[in-house]
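>> received
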Amino acid sequence: MQKDSLRQLYIDELKDLYSAETQMVKALPKLAKASSNAQLRQAFEEHLRQTSEHVSRLEQIFEMIEEKPTGKKCQGMDGLVKEGAETMQEKYSDAVMDAALIGAAQRVEHYEIAGYGTVRAFAEILGESDHLSLIEETLKEEKAADEKLTQLAREVNSQSGDTELDAPSRPQKTGRSASKRAA
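>> returned
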C-alpha cells in the first residue's frame, strides 16, 4: 500500500515538474529579451533549448507510465515567474537588471534542482530504472545552468558596481544615533 501511495506522489511530482518546465518555456524568452549582457542572453536562450528537452523527457516518462502530464499547476514556479516579471518592471540600470535577472533565474534553478532530486529518489525507490537516466540527465543540466549563472553573476555583479552615485540623495538620519556617529 505504501508503494502505491509513493507512486501517486511520484506521478504528482512529475506533473508539477512538467508544469514548471512548461511555464519556463514561456518565461525564458522574456528573460533573454530583458538581458543587456550578451552572454546572459545567450545563456537564457541555451537554457530555453534545454528546457524544451526537459519537457520532452518528462513526456517520455509519462508515456512509459501511461499517464497524462497535465492536470496540475506548479504554484511554486508560478510564484517565481511572477517575481521575475515584477523584477523586469523595475527601472534598474542595465547591469543591475542583469544581476537581478540572474538572481531570479537562480531561484528557479534551485527550485528545479530540488524537484528533480526528489523525483530521482522516488524513481529509485519505486524501481523505475528506465526513468532514472532521463531524470538524471535533466538534473545534470539544471545544475550546469545554475553553475553558468553563478559564473555570469561574478562578471555581471562586478559590472553593476555601486550605483549610489546614480541614486537620489538619501536624507541624513537625525536623532541620537546620528549625533553619536558625528562625535
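>> The two ends are 72 Å apart (CA to CA).
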